[in-house]
Each structure stands twice: as C-alpha cells, then as structure tokens.
Amino acid sequence: MNLSDLTKTFSKKAKIIFFIILLILLIRLFFLTTFIIQGVSMYPTFNSLDRTLINRVTQNFNQGDIIVFTNYSMNYVKRIIAVPEQIIFFDQKENQLFVDGIAVENCCEGDLHLQDINPIFFEPIHVPENSFFVIGDNILNSIDSRVLGFIHEDQIIGRIIFQYWPRFGRIE
Q: How far apart are CA 96 and CA 102, in angstroms?
C-alpha cells in the first residue's frame, strides 16, 4: 500500500466516523435526551442520581407512563395517574385516590398530608383536555399534581423509556 491508498482509506473512515457522530448528535438533539433523577420522589422505581433516557418525540401519553416535565423552571419526574377526561377524586375518609371510580393501587399508603392537597381534588373533577394528573411513586415525599395541579402537555419534556445507570433496562 502506498501513501495515496492510505490517505484514501483514512479519508473514507473519517467520513464514516463524522457521519456517525453527526447522526448521534441529531438523534440526541431531536429524539432522545438523557436525564439524571434528582431526589427520592420516584423511589423505589428510581433513586436519586439514576440516569435515564427520555423519548422527546412522544405525543401520546398513557396512564402509568413516567414523564419528565417542567414547572416554573424546575424539572420533575412523575407517573401519569390520570389522562384527559378521566375523573379523579381524593376520598379523605378512606385516604384513597380514585380514578374513574376505581381506587389507585399502592398509591396512598400512609398519611397523604391532606392539608397540602389542593382542595379542588376533594370533589370529583375531570382532568382537562391536554392535561394530566401525575404523582410520584414515593407519594409521601413527592411534590406533584396534588400541589402543582394538572400538568399541561406543553410542560412535558418527554417519557422515560430506558434506565442505563446504575440499573440497565427498559422502563415499561
């Protein structure tokens, strides 16, 4: 192999590497982004400093999805409990959250700090169009829709789809 052949080979490999890097950057910029969990509001699903991937192009959110959203320049990670047009209600006597008349399992164990809950949720209320009701999995240590109110879809950064540190796996 002479110098000219080596230069051509190097040039081809450099172009391939350049396009791979460009493709990764475009995917990260428009489709996926990383997110580091802060705090314990999603324990035991996530611990503080867990690292995740967010699907930024998802427009179809469902009950049970874990989302990242912004509220007054703060980012939050919470689980969607109710979607638009569902009816939610906190029963103070039973210390239980109901969605469409069905108790949400494993949601309200312990003291819900009812004094912190927005009083509108003590009566049945429809989740508004393009909005969601979200709660942290660690309900006793979570600032969520009980305090923040409904989360509008414009506030949502994306849905967490994958955790890559310290555990590795798809988020269902």
A: 10
